[in-house]
Design brief:
This protein is of the alpha/beta class and 231 residues long. The chain is 30% helix and 21% strand. The protein has one domain (3-227): Spore Coat Polysaccharide Biosynthesis Protein SpsA, Chain A. The structure holds cytidine-5'-triphosphate and magnesium ion. It catalyses: 2-C-methyl-D-erythritol 4-phosphate + CTP + H(+) = 4-CDP-2-C-methyl-D-erythritol + diphosphate.
Length: 231
């Protein structure tokens, strides 16, 4: 059962505020999408990669991803395909799913989580292959989280011990993810769609280095991590 990684990289990066679409902004001199794909390949858990990019970036992405992984030469070659995404992240993931109808499992992994350790990717794949139909990396929440009403008045404080911050890659039995995406409701992550089908989503330990590069501060942090050789 082939493990196909889908890499949503078709966002604009409005919050980062760079002129280039975010996934093509370099970190330590290498575009985020290339770092993310190299991490997937280095995990040894992925048979094929589908990268989803803005229409005007297809040629640039193909050139950027055509050479073999920068991270090591000992793995068998992993084919990397580039397809065009859509306006919302869910549209981009849907395009990725359509490009890989042969998948047995999907790992959906944000290009913006460029520093994700290969060990985390392997952990998700292992749990999936052990029989969990949906797997997400999770970290304890450090801030207290509150809900608010339209006026910004606090309406509740969920018990922090029960909360987790969720990262990617998120792993799914392929048929389950196709079914989840056949429904047309919004969600801020892929597992959210699976939860609505009533299927249990399992967690594995996340990793701080799998943080999403969203704002200029995140980019500064990522540059700092790479410059000290961190991981
Ligand atoms: N993404 C995508 N297609 C979209 C929107 C987002 O493939 N239409 C991807 C992004 O490229 C990113 C991941 O989904 O790798 C997570 O999204 P986010 O961090 O929100 O990135 P952007 O949408 O690019 O950033 P912003 O919301 O600040 O514009
Ligand atoms: Mg976005």
């Amino acid at each position: 059962r082939p493990v196909v990684a889908l890499v949503p990289a078709a966002g604009r990066g409005v919050r980062l505020g760079e002129p280039t679409p975010k996934a093509f902004v370099p970190v330590g001199g290498i575009p985020m999408v290339r770092l993310a794909v190299d991490g997937l390949i280095a995990s040894g858990a992925v048979h094929r990669v589908v990268v989803v990019v803005p229409a005007e970036m297809v040629d640039a992405a193909s050139a950027l991803l055509s050479t073999t992984s920068l991270t090591g030469g000992s793995m068998p070659p992993v084919p990397v395909q580039v397809v065009v995404g859509g306006a919302e992240r869910t549209d981009s993931v849907r395009a990725g799913i359509a490009a890989a109808p042969d998948a047995g499992y999907y790992l959906v992994h944000d290009a913006a989580r460029a520093l994700t350790p290969p060990e985390l990717i392997a952990r998700v794949a292992t749990e999936l292959q052990a029989g969990s139909p949906a797997v997400v990396p999770a970290l304890p929440v450090v801030d207290t989280v509150k809900s608010v009403d339209d006026a910004g008045v606090v309406t509740g404080t969920p018990d922090r011990a029960r909360l987790r911050a969720i990262q990617t890659p998120q792993g799914f039995d392929a048929e389950l993810l196709r079914r989840a995406y056949a429904t047309d409701v919004g969600a801020t992550d892929d597992a959210g769609l699976v939860e609505r089908l009533g299927v249990a989503v399992h967690t594995v330990a996340g990793d701080p280095l799998a943080f999403k590069i969203t704002t200029p501060l995140d980019l500064t942090l990522a540059e700092a991590v790479l410059s000290v050789g961190g991981s």
